[in-house]
Amino acid sequence: MLRIVxxxxxxxxxxxxxxxxxxxxxxxxxxxxxxxxxxxxMPVAVPxxxxxxxxxxxxxxxxxxxxxxxxxxxxxxxxAFVVLGPxxxxxxxxxxxxxxxxxxxxx
Length: 107
Description:
about 75% helix
């Protein structure tokens, strides 16, 4: 049973990573040449939070409870973009420190 759950989560994650723009952008920012775009990408969280608010309003007005899955997805993606900004700055600093140290070591 647990194997089925893990397989379902893995296939859903693979599907969302392949076709959804949010995870693709996050994966691009997490690469070394994309770390500088972490802070400018933080405002992308605003539409996700607005969509989550709209979903919440629809759910409160009597829409399908399955809309809460979309609301949860929007909240997770919005939070990911807000957290990604400071994290990418720290990763960029670490990468630059390592690159500088490597440049000093090689004559």
